[in-house]
Amino acid sequence: MLDKQDTWREICHILQPTLKSSMLEKDYENKAIETLRILGWLESRGDFQRQVPVQVGHEIKKADIVLYHNGQEAVAIELKRLVVQSVIMIPLNCFHTCAC
Q1: What is the pLDDT of residues 31-90, one digit of tens each?
Q2: What pTM does this model have?
Q3: Most exposed of 12, 14, 49, 93 (fewest Cβ within 10 Å)?
Q4: Based on the number of CB atoms within 10 Å of its own CB, is 48 exposed (0-12), middle (13-18) or buried (19 or more)?
Q5: Cα separation of 44 and 56, whole Å?
Q6: Residue 60 phi, psi (nearest 5)
Q7: Backbone angles phi, psi at 52, to 5 degrees
Q8: Which of 42, 47, 43, 40 is nearest to 74 (CA)?
């Protein structure tokens, strides 16, 4: 089991390639799924599903990912790719992990 700092470093490592604006949407979704697995959410256990129809107001839309708690839909996630016009590089050791 990873400690909180190692978990954060691993998530940053997984998500780093998503800063490329040329990344395909499916590849971006796969990176998000990888981070969920690092956090202990497993698709095989039914913790989440991809491309799930959800009610949004009077419309049915597809959420990219839906997280489940006790078998019930808990959180719908709609992924958006980052559009970067300029980047300011900040060393990762400047950030502190939360005590969540």
Answers
A1: 999 999 999 999 999 999 999 998 888 999 899 999 999 999 898 988 876 665 555 555
A2: 0.71
A3: 93
A4: buried
A5: 26
A6: -105, 125
A7: -105, 130
A8: 47
